Structures are given as C-alpha cells and as structure tokens.
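Q: Give me the 3D complex with FE2/S2 (inorganic) cluster.
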Amino acid sequence: MSSYPPLMACDESQVEEEVLWAAMKREEGRIVMIAGQKTAAYCDENGAIHPLSAVCPHAACDIVWNSEVKTWDCPCHGAHFDPTGKLMRGPAMTDLQLKKRLTPPIP
Ligand code: FES
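A: Here is the predicted complex, encoded as structure tokens.
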C-alpha cells in the first residue's frame, strides 16, 4: 500500500518559503531552511531568488555566504562560487546544484 505526503506539508513549505523570500534584501545571500533542507538563497539586484544547494559538491561541507565579495565560499578546502552558484575556484569541479523554487518570484 502506497502512502502520499499530506497536502498540508506542501502548503506549509510554500508559506515558509514566501516569508523567507519577502524578508531577503537585494544582493543578499543567506542560508535558509526550506522543507527541512538547508538552502543557499541569493536575492539578485532585480529581486529574483536563486535557491541553491548549501552543500559543496567537492566533499559535502556546508557553504557560507561571503557578504564582502558576494560569493558562496566553502570553509573546508576553499572553493568559491558566484552568487548564482557558478564555480569560480576549486577544488570543487561543478557548480552548486540549483534547487527548484516552490513559490513565484517577488514582484
Ligand atoms: S568540501 Fe568544499 S572545497 Fe572541499
């Protein structure tokens, strides 16, 4: 017998996500929890949110936002990613994984 997640869980995630996006400033990065998962979220100069995996693709350390140079940095071995997750410097070999956003962008 299969079971499906309750609709309430999805609705709660969407509400949670909308509140988080509304609180973000432009050109700000922040680690947030979306549906129980750490997410690296960047709000660009136009107000568009770029939700990314908060896990470095090199060896799975948690990345952090560097507000001085506006990059996602990995404290373990020094990888750097631009605000939208593109790899700038290794040892990681790939970009941060883009996450699907549940809610529409901020108007
Ligand atoms: S785990 Fe991030 S650079 Fe190694």
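A quick observation: The radius of gyration is 15 Å.
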